[in-house]
Specification:
The complex is a heterodimer of chains A (243) and B (199). By secondary structure, chain A is an alpha+beta fold. In chain A, 45% of the residues lie in helices and 25% in strands. Chain A is rod-shaped. Chain A starts with a helix and ends with a strand. With 199 residues, chain B is mainly α. Chain B is built from 10 helices and no strands. In chain B, helix 2 crosses helix 3 and helix 9 crosses helix 10. Chain B is globular, with a radius of gyration of 18 Å. Classes of the chains: A alpha+beta (243), B mainly alpha (199). Chains A and B meet through helix 2, helix 4 and helix 5 of A and helix 3, helix 4, helix 5, helix 7 and helix 8 of B.
Chain lengths: 243, 199
């Protein structure tokens, strides 16, 4: 196509009415720098734009603008994120996940301890129920002495298994350098049955196996001793009871 | 095309500087450009699609494209508004082709914008209509129907000259000649207005 033929295509070009071959030919011609066709095209483009504006004017729904602006702002937020952000976010996520894993592990460990504690308690409750129902059980009541007048204790003695289950209440907690110690009384001789740990409310529980060589146990006592306990009682007796 | 030349001079930013603002990511520039031209863009798109919902989608998409690709405007080739209207028109024609609306429109020629229910003319549109639009409409209606029809089919229906020739059952060369003659005639009619408006 020569220049005049190509120039004749400008009107159709502006209307996008050319097929790909004609359009390509004209664009090539323009790219070669034909200023006459450039001018022709520019003027016809104004006609096209005027044509576009000649349609009846209808205002768009304001919601279109709101949606557009919202979309842009979302985009702007993403655009304003620095380049290092993804790496930093990933690192933070890892730290957080690590911390969370640690927390979960600690929680699991705590819960395992709680479960063990509850299992132990449940076991002793079951044992207690069995003992209370058994004819082979005996009870020793221990009363607080003048040193601990409000304290009391009870031994549930399983004579079959030769086990003592000691339940203590209202026995005041001690400083760290002191401890309560339980004694079996055989005749008038005390035999250590171990030390007692009271909780903040002054309660304690002990499960003690009677030594097989210990016969004719006549009673039980609790004394106040130095921390760690002693082979023979040295301190005041705080609880005392006879079979 | 720029009927509000007297108003535009009073704007703080003209279209070109708004477009530069958009290139820098200035949201307010896009908002201003939208406020200024969305009615014109929407009206054109609605004229082509004759479907409010589809036209709203295209309107939004046109400004989204402007926001993302403002740097693709070549000021030496077209004014901002000409560039925007070209984007809008092409996008609407694409939509028309994809959705098959063109076939539906052809079956129901009464579904033109002017007769659609629920459309409220914009107050700004009324201002536009007074001078510019009337001028362009006069120029268009002054054309012989055999020139006007192929121009309208190309511009508002997105048909190529081959398709127009087939539809009007005219030789291809005849259609080319008529389109060219009609556009030249329109140019002659509108040149005084262009010079006056600075469009």
């Amino acid at each position: 196509m020569n220049h005049d033929e190509l120039k004749a295509l400008c009107a159709l070009y502006v209307l996008d009415a050319l097929g790909p071959d004609d359009r390509g030919a004209l664009e090539e011609h323009l790219a070669e720098g034909c200023s006459e066709c450039e001018r022709e095209l520019a003027e016809l483009l104004r006609v096209g734009t005027a044509l576009a504006a000649s349609v009846p004017q209808v205002e768009p729904d304001p919601a279109v603008k709101s949606r557009l602006m919202a979309r842009m702002r979302r985009r702007a937020v993403i655009r304003s994120v620095p380049v290092w952000f993804p790496a930093a976010a990933a690192a933070l996520a890892l730290i957080f996940l690590g911390w969370q894993t640690l927390q979960l592990r600690q929680q699991v460990a705590r819960q395992q301890l709680q479960i063990a504690d509850l299992s132990g308690r449940l076991e002793s409750q079951v044992e207690l129920s069995r003992l209370l129902a058994s004819a082979a059980s005996r009870i020793i009541e221990l009363a607080g002495t003048d040193v601990r007048p409000g304290a009391s204790a009870r031994v549930l003695w399983d004579t079959d298994a030769q086990m003592w289950y000691l339940y203590v209440s209202n026995l005041a907690p001690l400083p760290e350098d002191q401890t309560y110690q339980l004694w079996f009384i055989v005749g008038d001789q005390p035999h250590s049955a171990g030390i007692l740990r009271t909780d903040e409310a002054g309660s304690a529980f002990a499960r003690v196996e009677l030594p097989p060589d210990l016969v004719d146990v006549a009673g039980a006592a609790v004394s106040l001793e130095p921390a760690g306990g002693v082979p023979q009682p040295t301190g005041p007796i705080v609880l005392l009871g006879n079979v | 095309m720029q009927p509000k030349a007297h108003e535009q001079r009073s704007h703080i930013r003209d279209d070109a500087s708004l477009l530069r603002g958009i290139q820098r990511g200035d949201e307010t520039a896009l908002e201003e450009l939208y406020d200024r031209h969305s009615t014109a863009v929407y009206s054109l798109v609605l004229r082509i699609l004759a479907d409010r919902s589809a036209a709203e989608d295209v309107l939004s998409d046109v400004f989204w494209r402007i926001w993302k690709r403002a740097e693709s405007h070549d000021p030496s080739r077209a004014s901002v508004i000409a560039w925007m209207m070209t984007i809008a028109r092409r996008r609407a024609i694409d939509e028309l082709r994809m959705s098959g609306r063109r076939e539906r429109r052809e079956r129901s020629p009464e579904a033109s914008v002017g007769t659609l229910q629920g459309m409220r003319p914009s107050p700004e549109g009324a201002t536009l209509a007074t001078e510019t639009q009337q001028h362009v409409r006069d120029a268009l209606s002054a054309l012989a129907p055999e020139q006007r029809t192929p121009i309208e089919l190309a511009f508002f229906e997105g048909l190529t000259h081959v398709e127009i020739a087939a539809q009007l059952q005219q030789p291809l060369g005849t259609i080319k000649t008529r389109i060219r003659a009609g556009m030249q005639r329109m140019r002659e009619q509108l040149v005084p207005y262009f010079d006056q408006s600075g469009a």
